[in-house]
Amino acid sequence: MIGIQPSAEKFYRDHHKYTRDDVRDLLDLRDVKQSGSFITTEKDAINLGPYLAEVAPVIARVQMEIVDSADVVDTILRVIAERRTKA
């Protein structure tokens, strides 16, 4: 951990575009929990759109290193094939 103590968690689906109501809920949660700030990923910060300045989160940069690229490619191809058979 990097010295951050979360006081609450709020989850949204991937690629969620935040609305005014979402932001209001987040700000209310921050007030209730008496938290200093929010933390989010760079990717999700983009989804805050016009509300980014109002929420003013700490933005965490997430990096990923692929160790076994052949296994990753095999997994991606398998998932694609499974989804095609379900469609």
Could you give a short account of the major beta sheet?
2 strands, parallel
Class by helix and strand content?
mainly alpha
Number of helices: 4
Report how far apart the termini are.
Answer: 41 Å
Strand order of the largest sheet: 1-2
Shape: elongated
Mean pLDDT: 91
Helix residue percentage: 40-55%
**Domain module count:** 1
Unreliable stretches covering 5 or more consecutive residues: none
Brief descriptors of the model:
two-stranded parallel sheet, elongated, mainly alpha, 87 residues
Describe this structure in words.
The protein is mainly α and 87 residues long. It has one domain (20-86). 48% of the residues lie in helices and 7% in strands. The longest helix is centred in the last third of the chain and has 18 residues, at 69-86.
Give a short summary of the structure.
This protein is mainly alpha-helical and 87 residues long.
Topology:
Layout: H1 20-33, E1 39-41, H2 42-47, H3 52-55, E2 58-60, H4 69-86
